Amino acid sequence: MAEEGNEIDLSYEEEAKHDHVDEKKKDKKKDKKRDKEKKEKVECNDVEKLNMKLDKLNVKIEALQLKKADIVKMIEEAQNK
Asked: Composition bias, kind Basic and acidic residues: at what positions (predicted)?
């Protein structure tokens, strides 16, 4: 019976270690998310920089719209068959 008690204690210790590792991973993810938000929140009053950001976003949006149109076209073709 003493051995069974030791096994139970070990399993609790192992669970505690895993929980600790999981907490570290969660903390790292939160830190990365906060850093990313900080980068995005940087306010800039320079009109040229803001226009450049806007242009970059417009390019990304246009690319996504093209992908969307292709996917919609593929869906329509699949439905017509």
From this structure: 14-25
